[in-house]
Automatic annotation (TrEMBL):
PANTHER family: BNAUNNG04460D PROTEIN-RELATED, VOC DOMAIN-CONTAINING PROTEIN. It comes from the Bacteria. InterPro entries: Glyas_Bleomycin-R_OHBP_Dase (IPR029068), Glyas_Fos-R_dOase_dom (IPR004360), VOC_core (IPR037523). Residues 3-118 form the VOC domain. This is VOC family protein. It comes from Microbacterium wangchenii.
Length: 151
């Protein structure tokens, strides 16, 4: 089970229990304990392990979306699960010159997730790929696809 790291994010949602279910389905998140509920039944504190990281969550009256990055082993599978969980893909999986494939999706609670998959690319190949119009177009697409999504 993951321990706390130097920086551990909080995700503040209108429906934290729904967020926990979504993250469990999409990223295989594991609850570190049962969520603590306040007197009104709202989540006051919850913790999930996602890989080697801890994400803390709680309910709020008004929320602002979180923006989070997660490295995954199988990006296509993550996107399939996210869409099955009613997420909206913002950026389709796109291979970038430095050896990452990136996709973004907005989950049902409004949080924007950057999901990355690492490719094995050596430095010399990265330099060549940086000059390749295909990767330049990919980067332009990634940058433009989030227009209006990030506030």
């Amino acid at each position: 089970m993951a321990e706390y790291t130097t920086v551990d994010p909080w995700i503040i949602s209108a429906d934290t229990l729904a967020e926990i279910a979504f993250l469990s389905d999409v990223f295989g998140a594991v609850a570190r304990a049962e969520p603590l509920l306040d007197a009104s039944g709202r989540v006051a504190h919850a913790e999930l392990a996602i890989g080697d990281s801890v994400v803390m969550l709680f309910d709020a009256q008004e929320t602002r979306p979180a923006y989070l990055r997660v490295y995954v082993d199988d990006l296509d599978a993550v996107i399939t699960r996210a869409e099955s969980g009613e997420a909206r893909v913002v950026t389709r999986p796109t291979e970038l010159a430095w050896g990452d494939v990136v996709s973004r999706f907005r989950d049902p609670q409004g949080h924007l997730w950057w999901a990355f998959q690492k490719l094995d690319i050596d430095f010399a190949d990265m330099e060549r790929r940086a000059e390749d119009p295909r990767f330049q177009e990919g980067m332009a697409y990634v940058q433009s696809s989030a227009a209006g999504e990030i506030t």
